[in-house]
Amino acid sequence: MSVIHHFTSSLKTFLIVLLLGLSAAIPVIAQQTNNCGVIAKMIPEGDSVFHTSPSLVLFQSASINATDYKFIIDGNSFPINNPVNWGIGVGLTTVKLIAYNGSCSDTAISYYFFPGQFPSDTGNTKVRMDFLTGIMK
């Protein structure tokens, strides 16, 4: 079973697949997209197996050349530095990280989709979820 992690940093877009069952953080690599050197980058940590709703995901900034950070999760602003814990409920959750250094900033956005129910894993069963439709295949 996989959960899609969609990561964008300004004009660059990355798709990361979090494999259910992994408990290590998956590093996300961003490329510089501004001329002042700030690169917004976030890494989801902890257990990527979503068994219940809400599931807890730890978001940590791995931004480069940033001095201040702001997390915005489903419209709720967290003007604090690392880390931020947030329960992922059923449906689509948007996580935005804005990294600042003076007047320079960069933004990273992640989308998490949790359908609320997974088929039981009985061995080599492979299930994939289409991020755009939310349909399990």
**Biggest sheet: strands side by side, in what order?**
2-1-9-8-5-6
**CATH evolutionary superfamily:** Immunoglobulins
Taking the sheet with the most strands, its summary is: 6 strands, antiparallel
Beta-sheet strand percentage? over 45%
**Domain unit count:** 1
Radius of gyration: 15 Å
- What order do the helices and strands follow? EEEEEEEEE
Helix content: under 10%
Unreliably modeled segments: 1-31, 47-53, 119-137
At CATH level 2, the architecture is: Sandwich
Report the count of strand segments: 9
- Mean model confidence by pLDDT: 61
- Apparent shape: elongated
Structure description:
With 137 residues, this protein is mainly beta. Helices cover 0% and strands 46% of the residues. It contains no helices and nine strands. The chain has a six-stranded antiparallel beta sheet with strand order 2-1-9-8-5-6, with no helix packed on it. Residues 1-31, 47-53 and 119-137 have low confidence and may be disordered. The protein has a single domain (2-114), classed as Immunoglobulin-like.
